[in-house]
Amino acid sequence: MPLAIPRIGLLQISAVLLLCCSRISAVEIPKDFQRMIVSIEVPTSAADRLAAGGLLQPYRAVGTGFFASPDAKDPLTRLTLITAKHVMEGACLISSRVYLRYIDSPKDLHGNTLRWELQICEKTLQRDAHGAPVILPDGSPVATTRKLWTPHPSADLAAMQLPPTLSDRVPQDLKAFRITDILNDALQREWDIGASDETFILAFHPGIMNGEPSSAVIRHGTIAFFPNGADTFIVDSFVFPGNSGSPVILKPTIVNLKGYQFTVSGNARQAYLLGVVVEFIPYTDFAISPQTQRPRITFEENSGLVRAVRAEKVAELLRAMYPPTPPAP
């Protein structure tokens, strides 16, 4: 009597393959990526703390930054702080220095978090022909500000190389993106990166832990709009004040969907830098007066959409700051 051999249907094979692919593609980003980001903070004034009844922290976050390097081998060589340009501009209006805090910043004997001090601008008092400071009608002096950071010429990006004086205070376990970790246009086309691709946002979220203005978190997101040729794209995720400058990371996977076909050929998707958060997009609604038919009250809510500058602009900024050395004759 012939042995009956069970047949496996095409549907069952497809289900197994789909399950395997879903397991393989559910890749996380390296946990030490959170060591790439810092909270950029400025001190709160004594007058503001007094007016708030002592409820304000000594520092408040104005943005988030991360580290990158123009070098492809050693990411801690020529360590450069990357953030949104408006973060640095706003900080310079408050102070000539910012204070950087990262996920494992140590504390002093009194339990106070230690921060690194970074001078980001120089302010010089303007003087008249007699050498006296120029004073405005409100009594404040007129000062000229010189930026110590480099702005991108068109995008909302800024970069600043950390000075050698900070080398002894930079944690040894700090991480940074190499320039080869930045998604370029060629890889974006090869992997067909666009709407519906998944991302992670590394950010500092306020109010999670007592005694700290913000805490390092990883948020999940999805590309909502990725227009060709534009400097920015949209991510479906939530960000809040203090998140500008946060890096957007491409979710890594070895299975890639191009068109209608899954493929594992070509370069595997790594956790590349995809972009930099510059703002959340608010949803605005109006209360219309029934008498005048004009808006009386404006309501704004977080729409859950985030605008990010494409990572290629970060690479442009690094190449402009560190032009290649011409070969010796």
Which key features would you list for this structure?
329 residues, alpha+beta, six-stranded antiparallel beta barrel, 15% helix, globular
Describe the SSE topology.
Blueprint: H1 10-25, E1 37-43, H2 46-51, E2 59-69, E3 80-83, H3 85-94, E4 97-101, E5 116-119, E6 121-125, E7 143-147, E8 150-151, E9 158-161, E10 177-178, H4 185-190, E11 198-206, E12 214-225, E13 232-236, E14 247-250, E15 256-258, E16 261-263, E17 273-288, E18 295-310, H5 311-321
Parallel strand pairs: 2-10
Antiparallel strand pairs: 1-2, 1-4, 2-3, 3-9, 4-5, 6-7, 8-9, 11-12, 11-14, 12-13, 13-18, 14-17, 15-16, 17-18
Could you explain how this protein is built, in words?
The protein has helices at residues 10-25, 46-51, 85-94, 185-190, 311-321, and strands at 37-43, 59-69, 80-83, 97-101, 116-119, 121-125, 143-147, 150-151, 158-161, 177-178, 198-206, 214-225, 232-236, 247-250, 256-258, 261-263, 273-288, 295-310. With 329 residues, the chain is α+β, with helices and mostly antiparallel strands. The model is unreliable at 7-19 and 21-25 (pLDDT under 50). It contains five helices and 18 strands. The chain starts with 9 loop residues before the first helix and ends in an 8-residue tail after the last helix. Helices cover 15% and strands 36% of the residues. Strands 1, 2, 3, 4, 5, 8, 9 and 10 form an eight-stranded mixed β-sheet that branches. A six-stranded antiparallel beta barrel has the order 11-12-13-18-17-14. It has a two-stranded antiparallel ribbon with strand order 6-7.
